[in-house]
Amino acid sequence: MADAWVESFPHTASHILDEMDNTLGFKLSRIIAEGPNSKLNQTENSQPAVMATSVLILRILEKEFGFDVKSRIDVTLGHSLGEFSALVAGGYLEFGDALQLVRRRAEIMAQCTRTLVAQSGETYGMVALLCEPEHLESLLRTVQEFLGLDLPGIEGDAQHPVPSIQQVVVANINSRNQIVLSGSLERIKTLLVQLRQFGGHDPRAVKLKSDSPFHSPAMARATDYMRQALEQINLTFPASIPCVSNVSALPFQSEEDLKDLLSRQCVDTVRWWDSIRYLHQERGVRRWIGIGPGKVGRNLVGKEVGRVDTKGGGVWAVCDPREMSDIMAALEETESERQNPQT
Predict the structure, then answer these.
(1) Is 80 among the residues known to form the active site?
(2) Spatial CA neighbour of 146 closest among 206, 185, 197, 211
(3) How many Cα atoms are found within 13 Å in the side-chain-facing hemisphere of 309?
(4) What domains appear along the chain, each with residue ranges and CATH number?
(5) What is this structure's pTM?
(6) Contact criterion met (CB below 8 Å) for 249 and 271
């Protein structure tokens, strides 16, 4: 995850990894570098590892390439776990505080999943549903009906009524053609059958690499922890750069708003697509810079925003040190053309 960055920029990268290990009190850097994957993939290790690697890349941009975040970035946001990195980048949270929050939050989430499995005997996870863009609103509405969310249910027929599905929620609205379900995998399968038999939808279903039902009521203990922990650390508000909340799809409005929404993010739907539309349509964002150990964020921005062929625009994933020269050149080129904010 971080090896290529350590090899290319050993001084800056090693400093961040040392800070990570000292903050957590154990050698997470060794697990990141050496594995085994079974240990790295544990929620309590993978989440702080991803967050720390994102900040590591950001610090390399700043120190090795002279990238001044305050002058070149107008707004930040991050998808799910990435919201913590966005808050660090925006100046709301110190790296060490964010790391401790993420680690303990992840431990509690893992405990919630183990308890749920032990009590129910079911397996849990997350499944992405993909459809044509013009069908997204209808699909989402039908899913909510089957889940029994304050909407009229679909009755089926008199002899075979369609029951609402419990222990399944919409965890993410990711793009104009993708939502993510979270909960019992068995019940998600039942929901898919109902969608096809009674709902008039046949979305493509893709199981995600998660064995926990994130962004669902099952994670309520993590929300409780976050509410308490955020009262004990130093937050900076207002910070230097606005940051968009996953829950409201709008910038955090106050310190209390930040505490509330960041806590609720554990159980609420991630409104990523609404956030992107807000930035694109209302803030006029044309340049999008995704920082982290993968290209998921860049891909979720979607083809209809941040187009490279837009004057002064583009969308980049800063995740590979071998691409840094090209990325920095592209940023410099579009900098002179830029008339609108970037994120």
Answers:
(1) yes
(2) 197
(3) 2
(4) 3-115+216-337 (3.40.366.10), 124-207 (3.30.70.250)
(5) 0.92
(6) yes
Question: What's residue 92's pLDDT?
Answer: 98
Question: Is the link from the previous residue into 36 a cis peptide, with omega within 30 of 0?
Answer: yes
Distance CA(165)–CA(191), nearest Å, equals: 7
CA–CA separation, 72 vs 303, rounded Å?
A: 23
Rounded Cα–Cα distance for residues 191 and 229 (Å) = 36
Question: Which pLDDT score is estimated for 301?
Answer: 84
Six token digits for residue 83 = 């919201």
In a 3-state reduction of DSSP, which class is residue 244?
strand
Whether 215 is a known active-site residue: answer yes
Tokens at 138, concatenated: 């209808």
Ramachandran region, residue 187 (left: φ > 0; alpha: ψ -120 to 50; beta: rest): alpha
* Residue numbers in the chain where pLDDT is lower than 70: 149-164, 302-304, 306-311, 338-343
CB 175 within 8 Å of CB 302: yes
Report the C-alpha gap between 237 and 218 in whole angstroms: 30
Residue of 215, 216, 263, 275 with catalytic role: 215
Q: What is the model's pLDDT at position 181?
A: 98
* pLDDT of 343: 61
Q: Of 29, 80, 184, 263, which one is the catalytic site residue?
A: 80
Q: Tell me: the pLDDT tens digits for 135-192?
A: 999 999 999 999 985 443 334 444 444 455 788 999 999 999 999 999 999 999 999 9
